[in-house]
Amino acid sequence: MTSAISAHERVAQSLARQGMMNHLGVRLLSATEGQVELALPFSDKVTQQQGGFHGGAMGALADIAGGYAALTVAPEGMEVTTVEYKINFLASFQGGEIRAIGRVTKAGKRIIVTTAELVHVDDSGKRSDCALMQQTLVPVTKTY
């Protein structure tokens, strides 16, 4: 991608406009061409009735990580939008944070396919797999 701004800055600027991600406290950890890592801290904003991370919050984090990985390979002046995704939840966790690593699998002119791995990191730093996602996105014209 030839761009006036880095992949990291492109993702950071877009993430700053995401009301839901800001509300949940999502942080950008890294962004390079074809890969983005985000973190979602545990809080009462992201729990389900049994006190663990809610699947909807985990799905949103996976969607945005894959989407931003796709954004890093989309042409300048374009954004991406999700057409569909499928997620497998592997385990439930409390505390710590969930990290999502989104990666581009295939970047075409009309569709971009990504994956995201979600890993729970507890307060001692122990990492445990918690979800896998595959996603299809399409480039769309940036409207702002």
Mean pLDDT: 96
- Give the distance, in angstroms, between the N- and C-terminal Cα atoms: 21 Å
Number of helices: 3
Which regions have little confidence, pLDDT < 50, spanning 5+ residues? none
What is the 3D shape?
globular
Strand content: 35-45%
Q: Which structural class do you get from the secondary structure elements?
A: alpha+beta
The helix-strand sequence is HHEEHEEEE
Largest pleated sheet: 6 strands, antiparallel
Whole-angstrom Rg: 15 Å
Question: What topology does this entry show?
Answer:
Blueprint: H1 7-16, H2 19-24, E1 27-32, E2 35-41, H3 55-71, E3 78-89, E4 97-107, E5 112-121, E6 127-141
Antiparallel strand pairs: 1-2, 2-4, 3-6, 4-5, 5-6
List keywords for this structure.
144 residues; alpha+beta; six-stranded antiparallel β-sheet; 3 helices; 23% helix; 42% strand
Summarize the structure.
The protein has helices at residues 7-16, 19-24, 55-71, and strands at residues 27-32, 35-41, 78-89, 97-107, 112-121, 127-141. The protein is of the alpha+beta class and 144 residues long.
Q: Would you kindly provide a written description of the structure presented here, covering whatever features stand out?
A:
This protein is α+β, with helices and mostly antiparallel strands. It has three helices and six strands. The chain has a six-stranded antiparallel sheet. The radius of gyration is 15 Å and the shape is globular. The model has no long low-confidence stretch (mean pLDDT 96).
